[in-house]
Amino acid sequence: MPGGIWALGLGSMFMDISSELVHSLLPLFMVGVLGASMVTVGVVEGVAEATAAVVKVFSGALSDYLGKRKFLLVLGYGLAALTKPMFPLATSMTWVFLARFADRIGKGIRGAPRDALVAEITPAALRGAAYGLRQALDSVGAFLGPLLAVALMAWFANDVKAVMWVAVLPAFIAVTLLATAVREPAGPRRSAEGRAPLTLADARRLPRGYWLIVVTGAVFTLARFSEAFLILRAQDVGLALGVVPMVLVVMNVAYAAIAFPAGAAADRFGARRLLVLGLAVLVASDAVLAFASSPVPALAGAALWGIHMGLTQGLLSKLVADNAPAELLGTAFGLFNLASGGALLLASVIAGSLWSAWGAQATFAAGAVFAALAALGIAADRAGRRQP
Questions:
Q1: pTM of the entire structure?
Q2: Which single residue of 188, 217, 230, 287 has CA 20 to 30 Å from 63?
């Protein structure tokens, strides 16, 4: 595995330690401290993720145009690091929204160039494993962050703001690591000089197989709303405030354990079975969370959620890379994430509205229905779909 993949993965790990430390407490902060409603949580989370998706289109296309990925990668991580002090300083939902908005802009700037860079520095036969490894390391950070939050909540006597200040350090470690350890691939580079500006014609050059992957990714995301609702569900069924971040610990341990083997399997086997299996696991997760009445089933549902993510996310990234022209990798990942981000916005708003109107069971039951319909559609659609 190329060293650059390890550097990208470790950078993602440190940034996720920072981000998930904050995000594991943020829903509780919004609802318990600032008095936000469930609909407001859904809107904030959905708009934040949709913003990242929109920015990814422009950053991905710009990285194709410039022929350079690392500058945008470090810029995005740097902006995310600068937002971390804004969360503990927030005194209103407006400040929380602005902090989340800026943080997700940083995510949007770095996302598509990073995913394109993974494809460029990895042999095609190892792409599934490479995406799986990067996401596995990312998920290690995503469970270390909430685990650290649990320990710090005990240390600081449930002072949420004090705990959030700790998130600043790993964020800047991530930026330093990526700035010094990531190298763009050697060889002739494309240059913006003499090229016409990017136009819609570039998107039209993307093949039909790629657009099928975009639709598939959007359907997956529509069936999976923001993870903030996992945290709120755990608190809803009685998990103590100080250990609520354990929901994300459990979810991301499962994610990290599955992501690399699932990515390696994607290099050897057809995609459809893994996609359908991932959706089946999501249906099971939603069902468990819908009927949970105590913390143990809620944690089991979170673990199934993480297994679903591990089975599908690296696979979808591999499919995008395999179905897009090399000179349009950044654009391809940007458009893919735009569609998924729009679906996440819609899914999160629907989830918050259902929770407010009919309770948590309605939210997770609706997620199970969407996931089941998506699984049935993929299983039935055999004609015309490329089998990697």
A1: 0.69
A2: 217
